[in-house]
Design brief:
The complex is a heterodimer of chains A (376) and B (614).
Chain A lengths: L1 H8 L5 H9 L3 H21 L4 H23 L2 H28 L7 E2 L4 E2 L1 H18 L7 H19 L4 H17 L4 H21 L2 H11 L10 H13 L10 H4 L11 H34 L3 H25 L18 H18 L7
Antiparallel strand pairs in A: 1-2
Helix pairs in contact in A: 3-4, 3-13, 4-15, 5-6, 5-7, 6-7, 6-8, 6-14, 6-15, 7-8, 8-14, 11-13, 13-14, 13-15, 14-15
Chain B lengths: L1 H7 L1 H36 L1 H8 L4 E6 L6 E2 L5 E13 L7 H12 L3 H13 L6 E4 L4 H10 L6 E10 L7 H4 L1 E4 L2 H6 L2 H4 L4 E5 H5 L1 H5 L3 E7 L5 E8 L7 E2 L4 H10 L5 E7 L5 E7 L5 H5 L3 H9 L8 H4 L9 H10 L9 E3 L2 E2 L8 E2 L7 E3 L1 H7 L2 H22 L21 H8 L5 H8 L9 H12 L34 H16 L17 E7 L22 E8 L6 E7 L5 H17 L6
Parallel strand pairs in B: 2-10
Antiparallel strand pairs in B: 1-8, 2-3, 3-4, 3-5, 6-7, 8-9, 11-12, 11-19, 13-16, 14-15, 17-18, 18-19
Helix pairs in contact in B: 12-23, 16-18, 16-22, 17-22, 18-20
The chains are: A mainly alpha (376), B alpha+beta (614).
Chain lengths: 376, 614
């Protein structure tokens, strides 16, 4: 309460501005997210064969996610910091629970069934991992020393392995990169980064040994999709055809033939970018990338304005992870990255990832709108 | 202390962080540029290429289904092949009024409602734009009728498909098995890419066990199609690799002899080539005609098969569980000798029943009045129950269990067919864990004559007999020669995983007693000894289907047929250099010697030859 009144004094007193500030909403970020959501509905309508039901379900989810974002924006960032370790531990316990329960089911197990809805602990860990690492590093002086690096490494690897074991390679990758991003922003030395990159290249064959057959298939398909046009290479070939046939200006809204004729699989979920590219062409793609970059820039700006180490690290990590999200999805759809099953953030059909993403933006807004004024 | 340290570095930290923010921004911009370059490449440079590919009347990737491998018997007789057949197929997405079209087709070609339903179900499971058969095996009249009206049915076409055919029908149905339409569960477990275009998959038997080998590798063709999805031109193709042809060890003529010999009885005959383990006969009667299953068996026909009292769909040779009855006696006798629990010369007086000390219950011999004084050879020859009650009591269940297990009792034989049952070799531990009861001495006695909990399958019994004939070398029965050409010999047994150590004088005693069963005047199977120049070793068995009350008399004629005893017979020949082992089980056949032994006799004589063709 105290912080609110303080921050008010330092802003120009316009009526709408006051209301929004009371709501703790960051206007540029909100506008960016809102535009993306609108775009999502437009493209989902086309990719989902003009099914209003699909649209309504997605709208309900997005509405819920925006509410959650607003709610989190109201929480004092100090509270996030305070509960970081607790939330992280809770998430790890849930992950272990999912793995154990998964032993009784068949194949991949990612859900906890809570009766009314199903909960995916790996989604929650996407946010709590950077929180935990940021909290730990902020307790010590930066840049982090060897001991802290080791502990932080452990904090990142534990949830990553647990998720990779589910197996959900895409989410594991995102969790790992969110934690790594914290380390990077905390000032991990360039030498160390180079060493890790070299080491990673070295352990690639080892990782290969541990991969499930279908995960290996995906990598092999990525390296040479034409080798198996009926099976594993089918997705990538069809999505390249869809994107390429869109050309500069695209075929126009509802003009995508590839998804309409069912040539393009998963056109509403992971491969929705292909539909977008087919209908809106290169210009549309550039526009979408620009919108994403604007959102990311705003987030990085928020990080730069944050006033304590924890907030800075968390905000910058969330911003960077959002970019990784976009990059991995578009990269896989246009055939420069392997198919790892990551949705296009805020646009793909499906609820869980949108809720997590907007929760992250809620935290960013909380960081930005709860600044205590400390003179430099 | 650390607090002061932190405060001191506030400015350094801020600057470091700002540097990192800038570095991240640069990285993000670089990676985004990478994406943009790729998009430009796809959407400007490659646009024309991809636009051509995407055009509706352009290239489609069609799977080329490989020809399924042919299954032969050991002499090259065809057990399963593929015949050309024409089917009427629809691509639902290219038909504007599917229900109307189906109605018109139904009227034109008189198609049953059931077939229409079947088609609708299959269609919903298929991927879009996949041609789905409505009618399989069209006759000439149907072909001609449709050919006339074809232009009025866009999206409907006649396709030549290969349909699996089983010339020997019910004779080999349980060995060869059959293929059927891929169902939903299989759709999920099969490799999608390999089966894109395949409509059938092996369901049981060799067709199922060797599905991967038989199926082959799917190829594909890039086909230019017109608006109606009819092929115009093949642009490029990778040919499919046909499935492997399989050569079985089975001898279909011998199989026919065995099957016919069973006559009207239900039962099973299994014959094994002792030197290799190759299965020569694997007959289960009644069989069924697998051909209707290939084109989709009609519901009522399937119900008839399912509910038939004789259970034709039930693979008795592989899954039938029977008490071995007296056929277990040679194994028990051998156990007695190997454990030094009894000597060959030991004489026992058989009064026609056996009593445990201090128990009034009479364990009866099959021969009322008893066999008198018998030694081991006589006990096997005449199948004296009392001798084996006594021997079982001396041996105890633990030693019987351990010894018989070596011969494969209670374990799957390892034959290359799926769904095998493992039978049951009871033990104290088994009874404790499964029934939560302790083992009773009376149960030891009846195990000694192959009754009680003991259960075997015909293939198990044949394997145990072959192992006995082999003097302890355990064989693993198999049906498919690993080689795919006719001229290769059966692979010899590479190594005997298990070689039961047996004293040669012991096994020779047992074998000569088993020869007596056929060639001695007192033998229980002396009827089959005629017209052969070699000796057969064997043992009869009669397995009780239900218990007779203590004082009641067993009278075949008064008993409902289904409650009559099962007749069993195990044998191998020639006794001095065993080539073939045969196990026969005739359900409700009555006596092993009179019903089961002659069947084995016919098989052996056909395989090894007889002096008189009769």
């Amino acid at each position: 309460m105290k912080t609110e009144t303080r921050s008010e004094q330092f802003h120009s007193p316009s009526l709408i501005g006051n209301i929004l500030r009371k709501l703790h909403i960051d206007i540029p970020l909100f506008i960016g997210l809102f535009l993306i959501a609108l775009l999502s509905f437009t493209i989902l309508y086309s990719a989902g064969s003009q099914d209003m039901g699909v649209l309504m379900r997605q709208a309900a989810r997005v509405g819920l996610a925006f509410l959650l974002m607003t709610a989190l924006a109201h929480v004092d960032p100090y509270q996030f910091k305070r509960y970081s370790a607790l939330l992280f531990s809770f998430g790890i316990i849930l992950l272990v629970a999912v793995l154990i329960l998964g032993q009784f089911g068949k194949g991949a197990q990612r859900w906890l069934d809570l009766g009314i809805f199903r909960f995916q602990p790996s989604e929650m860990i996407k946010i709590t991992t950077p929180m935990m690492v940021a909290w730990y590093l902020a307790e010590h002086a930066l840049p982090p020393k060897t001991k802290q690096l080791l502990v932080a490494g452990l904090l990142i690897i534990t949830p990553t392995l647990l998720i990779a074991k589910q197996p959900d390679l895409g989410t594991a990758l995102l969790v790992a990169s969110s934690g790594a991003a914290v380390l990077f922003f905390a000032g991990l030395s360039w030498k160390f980064i180079l060493a890790i990159c070299t080491a990673l290249a070295g352990v690639t064959p080892v990782i290969w040994q541990f991969m499930r057959p279908y995960q290996r298939d995906r990598v092999l398909t990525f390296l040479n999709p034409e080798a198996d046009p009926l099976g594993r290479g089918y997705h990538i070939i069809q999505s390249k055809i869809a994107i390429g046939s869109g050309g500069i200006y695209g075929k126009g809204w509802l003009g995508s033939t590839q998804s309409e004729l069912d040539f393009l699989p998963e056109s509403s979920t992971d491969f929705i970018f292909a539909v977008f590219a087919e209908e809106f062409g290169l210009f549309g793609c550039l526009g979408l990338l620009a919108l994403y970059l604007l959102i990311i820039s705003r987030c990085l700006f928020i990080a730069s304005q944050a006033q304590d180490t924890y907030s800075r690290l968390l905000a910058s990590s969330l911003a960077f992870t959002f970019f990784v999200y976009v990059f991995v999805n578009i990269g896989m759809v246009i055939g420069v990255l392997p198919v790892v099953g990551v949705p296009l953030p805020l646009i793909s059909y499906g609820g869980t990832s949108i809720v997590t993403l907007l929760a992250g933006f809620g935290i960013l807004m909380s960081i930005h709108t709860h600044k205590k004024f400390l003179p430099h | 202390m650390s607090r002061i340290y932190t405060v001191k570095n506030k400015l350094v930290e801020s600057r470091l962080f700002l540097n990192r923010l800038i570095a991240a921004l640069i990285l993000i911009l670089l990676l985004t540029s990478g994406l943009i370059v790729r998009l430009i490449y796809l959407q400007i440079v490659g646009h024309e290429h991809y636009a051509t590919l995407a055009k509706d009347n352009s290239i489609k990737i069609e799977p080329l289904v490989p020809t399924r491998g042919i299954i032969y018997d050991r002499h090259g007789k065809v057990l399963a092949d593929n015949t050309q057949s024409f089917s009427l197929e629809l691509i639902p997405e290219e038909i504007s009024d599917l229900d109307g079209t189906l109605q018109r087709l139904q009227k034109l070609l008189t198609i049953s409602d059931e077939k229409i339903d079947q088609y609708q179900k299959q269609r919903k499971r298929q991927k879009r734009f996949v041609s789905t058969p409505l009618l399989i095996s069209m006759n000439d009249e149907e072909l001609a009728k449709f050919a006339v009206v074809r232009p009025y049915f866009p999206g409907v076409d006649i396709q030549a498909r290969l349909v699996r055919h089983y010339p020997y029908a019910e004779l080999a149905s349980h060995v060869v098995g059959y293929v059927g339409r891929i169902n939903e569960a299989e759709m999920k477990s099969l490799p999608l890419a390999e089966y894109r275009g395949s409509s059938h998959v092996g369901k049981i038997g060799i067709e199922n066990t060797y599905e991967t080998e038989l199926h082959g590798k799917t190829g594909y063709a890039e086909i230019e199609t017109n608006v109606q999805a009819r092929a115009i031109n093949t642009v490029d193709s990778v040919l499919p690799i046909p499935g492997d042809n399989l050569y079985l060890t089975l001898d279909i003529d011998l199989q026919k002899t065995a099957y016919d010999a069973l006559g009207d009885f239900n039962g099973a005959v299994v014959a094994i080539d002792i030197k290799t383990g190759g299965v020569l006969v694997f007959a289960s009667r009644p069989g069924f005609d697998p051909n209707p299953f290939v084109i989709g068996i009609a519901n009522d026909a399937y119900q008839t098969l399912q509910s038939s009292e004789n259970q034709p769909l039930y693979n008795r040779a592989l899954r039938g569980l029977y008490p071995p009855g007296s056929t277990v006696k040679p194994f028990i006798a051998l156990a007695g000798l190997e454990y030094n629990a009894i000597s060959t010369e030991h004489q026992l007086f058989c009064p026609g029943y056996y009593q445990l000390p201090n128990v009034s219950h009479h364990y009866r011999d099959w021969k009322k009045g008893g066999h008198g004084s018998v030694n081991m050879t006589e006990a096997i020859t005449e199948s004296c129950d009392v001798y084996f009650y006594s021997l079982a009591s001396t041996l105890g269940i633990d030693r019987m269990h351990n010894f018989l297990q070596n011969f494969g009792f209670g374990e799957k034989s390892g034959i290359d067919l799926t769904g095998e049952k493992s039978g049951l070799m009871p033990s104290r531990e088994w009874k404790r864990s499964q029934r939560n009861q302790s083992w009773y001495p009376g149960e030891t006695l009846i195990t000694g004559i192959g009754q009680g909990f003991l259960q075997v399958t015909p293939i198990q019994l044949a394997k145990a007999t072959a192992t006995l004939a082999n003097k302890g070398k355990v064989i693993t029965p198999f049906l498919v020669k690993k080689a795919t050409s006719l001229n290769t010999e059966d692979p010899a047994m590479e190594s005997h995983l298990n070689n039961i150590p047996l004293k040669s004088e012991n096994i020779n005693t047992i074998i000569s007693a088993m020869v007596n069963v056929i060639h001695s005047p007192h033998g229980t199977a002396k009827s089959i000894s005629k017209n052969i120049a070699y000796q057969i070793a064997g043992k009869t068995g009669t397995a009780q289907v239900f218990n007779i009350k203590q004082d009641a008399k067993y009278n075949e004629k008064n008993i409902d047929f289904k409650l009559r005893d099962h007749a069993l017979f195990i044998s191998f020949a020639p006794a001095d250099d065993p080539q073939i082992a045969v196990a026969v089980i005739v359900e409700n056949g009555g006596h092993g010697g009179s019903v089961a032994a002659p069947i084995a006799g016919q098989v052996i004589k056909q395989y090894l030859g007889s002096t008189n063709e009769n």
